[in-house]
Amino acid sequence: GMDRLRRLYQRKGYLSALIGPLGWTPTPGGLTVAVPIQQGTRYRIEVNGFNTDAITGQMTFFDDPRDDEDSLAEEGERLTRYLSDRGYRHAVVRLRRQVAPDGTVVIQVTVDTGRRFPLREIAITGNIAASDRELLEILATKPSRLWRARFIEGDVLEADGERMKGWYRAHGFLSPSVTVGARETDAPRRATALFTVEEGPQTRIGSI
């Protein structure tokens, strides 16, 4: 019905097409049904330097087609984070708006991925009360294995820092601090996830 017609227009690039509501007009032979359609601006996305489906699948542009400078900058930052979480730690994404002779707005996405850095090591410093093993067990961040490459994901890394602070609070440290980061090396090419701990004082409750 209407949703299928809307998706058809969206596939053709009319992302902001307005369809409906239906109108009925009585005629001698019955009813005439009219479907008002406002196509709006037609868009086309062109991706260079990376898989098109992977990039367009991460873009919010299709749900909210804003092509002003600030919106495109936000889209570029979002795509940069996406690539960084997949090991392209120094990826650069540029979005450019152009208008084709037929009036189609073309969004050109140019990607320079740079080198890819698999996660090989997790380094924890500053921990005294907790062993590396105890803290590593609670982390979602895991290093690569022979059968599976893993990469540093920014949101997961931040969440792991909070997990570490939770461990310390549960063990009587009221104000622990955990700083997360990453380090890349080229020979051999690898990334290290960094966790720097400041435990602070531990509070113990004695018997009364």
Secondary structure elements and pairings:
Blueprint: H1 2-11, E1 18-19, E2 23-27, E3 30-34, E4 37-38, E5 43-48, H2 52-56, H3 69-84, E6 92-99, E7 105-112, E8 119-125, H4 132-137, H5 154-170, E9 177-186, E10 189-198
Parallel strand pairs: 5-7, 8-10
Antiparallel strand pairs: 1-4, 2-3, 6-7, 9-10
State the main characteristics.
single chain, 208 residues, alpha/beta, three-stranded mixed sheet, 26% helix
Explain what the structure shows:
The protein is of the alpha/beta class. The chain has helices at 2-11, 52-56, 69-84, 132-137, 154-170; strands at residues 18-19, 23-27, 30-34, 37-38, 43-48, 92-99, 105-112, 119-125, 177-186, 189-198. The strands form 4 sheets. Strands 5-7-6 form a 3-stranded mixed beta sheet. Strand 2 (23-27) and strand 3 (30-34) form a beta hairpin. The radius of gyration is 26 Å and the shape is elongated. The mean pLDDT is 88.
Query: What percent strand?
Result: 25-35%
β-strand number: 10
Q: Structural class of the secondary structure composition?
A: alpha/beta
On the 0-100 scale, what is the average pLDDT? 88
**The biggest beta sheet, please?**
3 strands, mixed
Q: Widest sheet: strand order?
A: 5-7-6
Number of H/I helices: 5
Low-confidence stretches: none
List the secondary-structure elements in sequence, H or E: HEEEEEHHEEEHHEE
Please tell me what the overall shape is. elongated
Rg over CA atoms: 26 Å
Q: Termini separation (Å)?
A: 74 Å
Question: Which percent bin holds the helix content?
Answer: 25-40%
Brief characterization of the structure:
The protein is of the alpha/beta class and 208 residues long.
